[in-house]
Structure to design on (167 residues):
């Protein structure tokens, strides 16, 4: 009978560890589902030096940076973080051109699209990333300005990191 207890315990411990980490693994998996954002993207129609770059998912986060160049000057930039908040929700936190940071909750995710929303934000209230194909990413912002619906698309083409469009 004594030999049976160690076997039961040795089977039970891994099961308990698996159950204890199940919530953590599920959250990390949600972030991992956005791995298609990873890499460097050149905004179509923008001047050389304009770029959006995303890190690979790690540590329950993805980090992004965006720069817009006109006439040889940086005219806009944004630091972006997609991560899990304290409540376990996936959020996008944007810090555009030194403005107050804004927080958007993930409301929809699929194999090629993520939608983040904040109905209380001035504009935009919605941020959408849609992977059209392996080399085409569409960023879209939507919202209401002066009582009218507005939307702006930002088409981007995949690039090798370090190639910022200067050719």
């Amino acid at each position: 009978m004594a030999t049976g207890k160690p076997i039961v315990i040795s089977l039970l411990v891994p099961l308990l560890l698996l159950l204890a980490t199940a919530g953590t693994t599920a959250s990390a998996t949600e972030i991992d589902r956005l791995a298609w954002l990873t890499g460097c993207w050149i905004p179509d129609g923008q001047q050389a030096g304009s770029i959006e770059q995303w890190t690979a998912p790690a540590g329950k986060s993805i980090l992004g940076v965006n720069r817009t160049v006109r006439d040889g000057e940086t005219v806009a930039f944004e630091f972006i973080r997609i991560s899990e908040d304290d409540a376990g929700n996936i959020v996008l936190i944007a810090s555009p051109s030194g403005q107050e940071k804004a927080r958007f909750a993930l409301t929809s995710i699929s194999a090629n699209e993520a939608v983040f929303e904040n109905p209380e934000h001035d504009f935009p209230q919605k941020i959408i990333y849609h992977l059209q194909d392996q080399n085409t990413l569409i960023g879209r912002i939507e919202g209401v300005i002066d009582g009218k619906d507005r939307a702006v698309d930002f088409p981007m083409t995949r690039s090798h990191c370090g190639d910022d469009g200067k050719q």
